[in-house]
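Task card 7
Instruction: Convert sequence to structure tokens.
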Amino acid sequence: MTVFFYNILMQKLLFALFLSNFVLFSGWTDTLLIVASKQTPYTRDIISGITLGLSESSPNTNTETIYIEDTDPAAQAQKQSYTAICTIGNNAYRAASSIAGTPIIFTLLTEHYSNSLKTRGADNTTGVMLSAKPEQQVAILKNIFPEIKTVYALYSDESEDLYREFTNNKLGVTFKMQKVANPQDIPAAMETMAITNKDVFFILPDASIYNRDSLSYVINRAADQRIAIVGFSSVIARAGAVMGYVFDYKDIGRQTSEIITKILEGASPRSIPPQPIRKLGYAINLKAAQDLGLEIPPETIKKASEIVS
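Output:
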């Protein structure tokens, strides 16, 4: 009987050795297709974070990157089989969403898109949204504006989910938000807002209402009325806002790689809820703050990711 069990054990060990050698010599690896809109500093940082994260958690995974301005993702997926697809941004996701049967892990997808996935029942998709938790954002606002009580903002159908998140928060700050349909509605909407120089106007990430001209209008109008502006990115701070949120794109890539690893290991995208960005910083425009007579605490300035002067 002992010899019998010994033989069975040896057969299992030999079979396991055979499988490991088969994987080693046959080049049995996972292949990830990364789809981005175009080459920019932030996409390069995200891709760097993804590949670095996968090199640690899934070293046998090969990655291939294409840009939709050069290559159609659907056509590429017909030429080669991929274990999973990672998209960066709304346009890249839109271009790759028609590919059936392959898990799609998105990053920097706006909440409008990611929440519509739930409505459509897209079970093969998950990832990292272009959003941060309201409590993270409000905590930064309070550090920069310690006496803040009211935040005003405009929103549209695209940012209605953000409207719900902020107006339902219980973080000691009141959000008063007005809905508009397009950039042309902004001047009239701001006329009706009873904003004072003790309040803050928050520019939400909403491409339906904010373009270069409308952003310039809001920032200049606020400056004339001595109202502090905050925005969803450091670009807004460089344009004249007192503060803009800053994303760590390499860490976003790493966060995305963790989701990819789980899926490569067999998890269903449906079992992994879309995640907000976990690491949030801020840029401060000291000149804009000085023009408004704001005194930002030195410790808050010291912790800023970027200083605009």
